[in-house]
Amino acid sequence: MDAMLLVLAGGLAGCAGPELPPINLAAPGWTVQETQAVWRPKREAPELIGELLVATHPDGSRLVQFSKQSLPLVTAQANTNGWSLSSPLRSGRFGGTHTPTDRVPWFQLTELPPKKAPVSARWQLNTEASGTWRLANARTGESVEGVAP
């Protein structure tokens, strides 16, 4: 868990942005996909196995959440007004306006399984015909991988 905190603190220190409204995934228009996933916060960190949720709305809003045993470890939210990233393991919230940060994998995921190349050159997406996929940052060693829901 310490590795994840370092990634959040080091990659996003000092960021503050708009408070985004809570999302009601039961509201009309939301598409919610879930799958089992493995997250490695950095090269030397152990893998964390959990559940990955990706929810999108036609208005451009989205929510990505990585949880372990129903406890959200990372919650990333974006809409047309900005983005936010939070974790109950670290006090505070990070965020910004306009385009979400490309330093974390969560804002690269817009569907499950991911089909489009990441918007940032920091990240590489590998997909297999079997439905498995892996999003990785070669420089930091951070990765998220899963299977098609």
Account of the protein in words:
With 149 residues, the chain is mostly beta strands. It has one domain. The chain is 7% helix and 42% strand. It has one helix and nine strands, in the order H-E-E-E-E-E-E-E-E-E. It has one helix at 2-12; strands spanning 31-40, 48-56, 62-68, 71-79, 82-87, 90-96, 124-127, 132-136, 143-147. The protein has a nine-stranded antiparallel sheet with strand order 6-5-4-3-2-1-9-8-7, with helices on one face. The longest helix is centred in the first third of the chain and has 11 residues, at 2-12. The two termini are 26 Å apart. The relative contact order is 0.21. The model is unreliable at 1-14 (pLDDT under 50).
- As laid out across the biggest beta sheet, the strand order is 6-5-4-3-2-1-9-8-7
Measured by DSSP, the beta-strand proportion falls in 35-45%
- What about the largest sheet? 9 strands, antiparallel
Gross morphology is globular
Note poorly predicted spans. Answer: 1-14
Structural class: mainly beta
Number of strands: 9
Task: Compute the number of helices.
Answer: 1
Give the H and E element order. Answer: HEEEEEEEEE
Distance between the termini: 26 Å
Q: Into which percent range does the helicity of residues fall? A: under 10%
Radius of gyration, whole Å: 14 Å
Structurally, the number of domains stands at 1
Mean pLDDT: 87
